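PROTEIN ENTRY
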Amino acid sequence: MSAAEAGGVFRRARGRTLDAFSSEKEREWKGPFYFIQGADPQFGLMKAWSTGNCDSGGDEWKQEIRLTEQAVQAISKLSPKPKFFVLCGDLVHAMPGTPWRKEQTEDLQRVLRTVDSEIPLVLVSGNHDVGNVPTPETIAEFQRTWGDDYFSFWVGGVLFLVLNSQFLYDASMCPALKQAQDQWLDQQLSIAGQRKCQHAIVFQHIPLFLQSIDEDDNYFNLTKLVRKEMADKFSRAGIKAVFSGHYHRNAGGTYQDLDMVVSSAIGCQLGKDTHGLRVVVVTAEKIVHRYYSLDELSEKGIEDDLMDLLKKK
């Protein structure tokens, strides 16, 4: 099943923007709003992780289906509705060209079709979606299935940038594609730098860092050289926050005025966090976020102090 066949909820990013938010009116600040961030549904990882065979062991994903269904149901019954639901990468576990990828993709699309049609989906590419070392072919496959791998959109006067972080990890097989994203990003950051938006926010799969800009390189962050370059670029442009996944645990830190937010997974947990989602409230002055377990969000909804922020004009 292609995204085009998957129903109206798959308003895919095309032409480096998201049609759901194409109106010029979205460039105007109209007051506080909120969105939901999720990460790493990664259909197939829970079985693969439990068997110790992460490369080819993901032949079951019933648990991930159930958890993603719970996430979708919790989001769809929230009132007021979030402006959008962003999934920060690793949509499925099977890498490009490996067994189970088609089946995992079809099952995830089936679940995501049930998101309230008034809540647009924003889909971010992860390493399992385009490969640890992406190629023009794996990028093209992602674009056919889920939409553009990097793009921008406006919501209520806030500029959102979606990046393909694999280009920052290893673009050795697709240097021209990385260069294109770099040039596009510089253009987008110039808009943010001119302060033509109330805030500017970035979504990418791999975090710049997990806790500190100076931490050692590891599988779950970008290298020191790259992270410092990107963090400085974001900070100069006035980016307020970067939201990521990949770590399957909650983490994060700050660099200058930049908030690096690392959210745990809807799917497989690699630490002590719960399967969950992050509620992000955007006010005129600040961005406030809180991680909820799926059970908490399903049973209790959003807490009063966050709801109160939405009432302030």
Notes: The chain has one domain: 18-311. Residues 235 and 258 are 6 Å apart (CA to CA). The chain has a mean pLDDT of 95.
